[in-house]
Structures are given as structure tokens and as C-alpha cells.
Amino acid sequence: MATTASKASCENFIGRRRTGGGGGGGGASMAMRRRNNTNNTSSKKKKIIVTRASSLPTSSSATRWEEEFGNEKIFYRTRMTTKIQRQQRSSSHRAGDGVVVRASREEWASREELLEEIERLKAENAELKMLRAQLEDVGTDDKEEEEEEEEDEPTTTAAKTKSKKNTTKKRTVSGGALRTDPKSESEIEWPLPITTEGCPVGEEDKKPFWETRPKNDPDELFSLPDDEEGKTTKKTSRPKKISHVTAELAPLAKVGGLGDVTQGLGRAMKMQGHDVQVILPFYQSLDANEIFDLKHVMDFDVPKGMKWDGENVVSMMKTSAYSGNIGGCDVILLKPHDDMNSNIFKGGAIYGGSYNELEAYLYFSRASLEFLDKSGRDPDVIHVHEWQTCAVPMLYWEEYHGKTSLNKAKIVMTIHNLDNTGECREEEFFATGVDGAKFNVIEKALDERTIGHNPERMCLMKGGVVYSNKVTTVSPTYAKETLDGNGGFMSQILKANQDKFSGILNGIDYQLWNPALDATLPANFAPGNKMTENKKLCKKYLQIGLGLDVDETKPLIVCISRLVPQKGIHLIERAVTQSEKNGNQFVLLGSGHSDGGFKRMANEEFSQANSTNVRLMITYSDALSRLMYAAADFVLVPSMFEPCGLTQMIAMRYGALPIVRSTGGLADTVIDCDSDSENGNGFVFYGADDQSLDECIQRANKTFKDRKKFHELQERVARVDYGWEASGNVYAELYESL
Ligand code: ADP
Fold first, then answer.
1. pTM for the whole thing?
2. 619, 481 contact by CB (below 8 A)
3. Residue range 437-450: average pLDDT?
4. Cα(179) to centroid of ligand 1, in Å?
């Protein structure tokens, strides 16, 4: 997707092992010495990674060590899966010519065997690289031609919404080498079908199949790609210090698209050469073992207001800051120092834990500003997201700018969803240590709808809009829809602040979502490379695992979604019931406060015993979602409103055609195949009624039956480029304009 110096990648590769996790022992200094000893190699800067068997199952602990063979060193990493008590090993060998090779520990027993294996893998890898280069040449030619045409296009603002056709037509990606390409079906270890409880039939103590799939190796996934792979990232000549403040960051602290976006945008900006930091709550539910290079940075005091004997009292809450890396983003995690005496961010889930969300995010907002001040970072841009962090711009301009070390920062705020805008009473705002009365006035954060009520309340998102220098939302059409009055109360606020408001389409991280290298898939594929054959294998894998009829001729529709009214619950239900009737298969993966009806259906008419065409998985699983995207013929997104939506973009990347209701970002990214045969990349309907959905699915089914056409469409959608490059450039311009 984008670029960075390959030397940096090599060093990251070793450096991560050196500092992350426990048990590295003396590895740090030895690795460092070794790096210095390879001075004759750095000029070549050639990195080859063979990814064979480097993906490991769920890890709860990791140890690293190294061994010496003559003057060469082999780096090992072992992860122990505590539940199944199984050990798997991988090793990394950094050869003297600057080449990095990974091979499975199981594949060799002696040094000679290892070296032989390395030579073989290098040769194999060289061939793969050559093929990839050839494929990319074809892709580049297309891309260059298309980019020439694109020059006169409007920018992505609400006022200058891109035409739907152009958005899709202009940017394409090509495929690459595959991680796993089974030569025959017998090479795949097929799953045992799950029971109602989720475990495999006859193996009640075991995990369901998707949890035993290999995991993507974070070292590969989150290293910045080599120069040769990311050809079009613009390197900045004016690097900025950007600090994001957010409640979510994928993959560890993700509930929905917010986490994906902060990660994808953060990495895109880093690839451009900006200095990006993400500030995140240190939720108790985060697995600290999964955070790379986790280190305590500092403790500092944060003013925290509370009621004491009927009086408002501000005391200091000692707060701890940790640094680390999550999903390729440099992160600062904040939490109260005294864990025992505070509930903040406690509980087993990111949201809905055992803490008061409003109080916790107000404290977090204040703590983020205190950290920025006391750490001396002096950012150029503070980028806040959603209502949870809207107190940051409010407090920044009233309490910090010009009064602390924070003098030059400008604030960008991104609205990912207007569903929750952060209602807050004056006394609740006092959790920040600042009197809410300061903001509870009409020109600041007062929610006009509460005028005359007792008490009159604030809307944090309004405060965020009023106090930010620029406000964005996540697609041009959603920006337009909100200005046209579809954003409820916030529409009038955004209209009044229209001059600083724009819609910038989200992207997806093409390294993170890559069916060619995704380790969770039983067979990988890319456009132009085993797309049809290996997608079929993935479909069969899912059908077997979920106990569905194993039938390639049945169109498989999947839906992966939070189950809340916004997502079109009644239409998802309709698609489920119709699928059983009209010979389709349907798999739902989702959870949320409106999932009750689906739970009932999953236990009754669509239970394992009653249906071999429908499976309703009311849970959250990244691994299962990846298998589903890869297996799917269609991905349904029937949202009532959708600020951007990522699932339709991930679907395309995995060669599945989206079936969407035309709204917000769905309207910006999906073009109906029947209306535009040249550029169509999915199926679109407009109404919110059953008939509109049924007709659209019928059209999709008709296309599915024309196998040649359908496979061509799969190839086409998998080439559509919704990576972060383009949107990253728009954000860079926005930062520059501050
Ligand atoms: P939203 O942010 O409104 O939830 P988006 O389409 O922007 O919707 O992003 C949803 C993201 O969350 C996608 O990456 C999708 O794959 C993921 N997702 C949603 N539900 C689940 C689930 N139950 N299990 C795994 N991933 C999920």
C-alpha cells in the first residue's frame, strides 16, 4: 500500500523481537552488536521475508531468544498457547547479505538443514517476487493511465462530492504472491463442523475452528511496507507532530470502524513521514501481552473534580502513562495510577464495562491534555474522534492554549457517527476538574433542545464542533446528508459551522486486510491469482465448519455487523428468512443491543438441527469475520444510515460483491452492476422495505448464475482501491491548511 525505507523494515523486524514481550534476556545487546557487524550489507537494503509457518495461534505469552551458529545468529520466538498447551515455534534468520528469512522451526533439525532450507526458500521467494513485480507492472500501468485522467477531479468535501462512478473507476490495485496456495484440496486440514455450543462435533473440549486458525503475525502485518510495494505514497517535506486522542485503536482496542480508522489513518500519515502518536485509554480488558514494546513512561497528576460533602472539590488523580505499539501505531495508554481505588476503564469490555463512561472519558480527555503538556511533545495537530474525546478541544482552548507548553496545536475533530453525541450535565462535566457552567451556554456546548428543561444540558459533540479548527466526517455523502438535516440536532450545528466541515472518505488498511497474505484463510488469493479457485476452497471450508450444505452453486451471502438499529436489523432478518426459502445460504456474524431476535432465531428455526443453509453467529470474532469475507459471494450491508461503512470495502478486497442500501459512505463506494456494466462493483437498493431488498438480492442471484460474468466481477471488485493512500493525502492537505 505505501512506502518506507526497507532498512527501517529490517531493523523493525529485529528490534521488535528484541524489545517486545518477556524473556528476551541478553538479546537486546547481542542483536544490536550483530546489526553493527553487518555493516557491509546495509547498502543493499534488500529484504526478503518468507512467511512460511510464521503465523502462530492465539498467544498469551511470548518469549524470544537467540542462538549462535559460527558467526551467524538465529532468532527464535516461541509463543505458548496456555489453553491448549501446545507449543509452536518459528525462527528468523537474518543472513549476512541483509536478507531476512523466516522458516518454521519444525522444518530443520541441524544448521546444515536450516541453511539448505533457507537457500531453497530464497530461491522460491525470488521467483515469487518476480511474479509479483510482473503483476504490479501491469497494475502500475493501469494506475498511471487512470491517475492522469483523475487530475481534474474535485476534492472530497461536502460541497464537492465526488461522482460515484469516478470514485471507483480511477484507482485500482493489483494482486501479489500468495501465502498459502494448496495444490489440491487434500492439502487443507478441513474443520470438523461445530455444534450448537460452538465446539467441533465430538470434541467438546476444543475451540471452534476459527479460533484454531493461524493468526496473522503482527511483525509482518504492521511493519511499514517496502518502498517497492507502496509506490504512490507522497512523502511529506513538512513533517507534522500529530496526536490522535481516541477511544478505539485496531486491532486490540476495536469495537467497530472507529478502531480501524484511527489505525489506518495513523499508519497512512506515518508512511507519509509524519510523527504520529495515538493516545488511548488503558482499558483493563486490553491484553498487555499483545502490546509491543510496552513501557511505563511517566506518572503525572490530573485535576479531577468531585462532590465532597456537598461541595465541588478538585483533587489530583495520579495517572500513569505507558508507551507501546498497537497495530503499527505508536501509542500512549493512560490509566489511573491507583488501580485499586478507581473504577475507571475497568471491566471485561471496552464499552459497557463496570465504569461510568461519561466520567471516564472526561477524565481521559483531561489526562490526554495533561500528558501532552507534561511530556513536552508540543504537537502541531491534536486529532480527536467522537463524543468521547470532544472535551479535549473545549478544554484546550479554555485551559491550556497559551497557559501551558501547548501553544501551537490546532484541533481536528472527526465525527464517525452521529448516533451518540454525548449528553452531559454541568455537574458531570466537573469530572474534568473544570466547572461545566463555563460551557453550558448557547454559543458553546448547550444543547438547545434542553432549554427550559431542568437541568439544561450540554452536548459534548456540539462543544467539539464549536471548539475545533476543522471538523470532518467519514464520507462526502454523509457530510451532505447531515447538512441536509439528516443528522438530527447536530445538523443545525454543523450547518452553522459549515465553513470548517468536510467529508473525507475512510479507507481500509490494505496490509491488514489482504486475502493474498491473510494467515487465517485456508487458501489465499489475489486478483489475477487463484481468485476463483481459492475463494471456492474458502467457501467450502466455511460451509463445512458451520455445518452448512457443502454446495458451491448456492450463493453465499454474509453479514458482519454490530447489531443495532442503524444497521437495518429488519432487513437483515428479512434476508435471513428469504435465504432459506430461495436457495441461498446466509451467515450472520454480529452482536449488539438489538441482537435478541437473532439469538432466538439462532436457537429455534435456524438452529443447527433445523437449517443447513443459515447460520447466525451472535458473537464477535475477527478470525471468523476474515474467513467469512473470503468465503462470501456477497456481503450484505442494508444500513438505515451509514457514515462510511468499512465492511463493503473489505468485502471487495476479498472478492465478494457488496449488496448495500444507498446511504452515506455506501453510496460513495458501491456502484450498481446492473446500472453501470462498466464500473459496477456491487448491488444497490434504495428503499428500506422488504421488497426493495428482495429485488436487489434477486438481481444479485441472477448475476451469480452467470458464472463467467460473476467471476469477472469478483476480479474487478478485488482490484478496486479503497486503501488509505488517497484519503491520507486529503487529511495531509487538511492538516497543512490549519
Ligand atoms: P461500524 O463502525 O458502524 O461498526 P463499519 O462498517 O465502519 O461499522 O466497521 C465495522 C468493522 O467492525 C469492520 O471491520 C467489521 O469487519 C467489524 N465487525 C463488526 N462486527 C463484527 C463482529 N461481530 N465480529 C468481528 N468483526 C466485526
1. 0.77
2. no
3. 96
4. 25
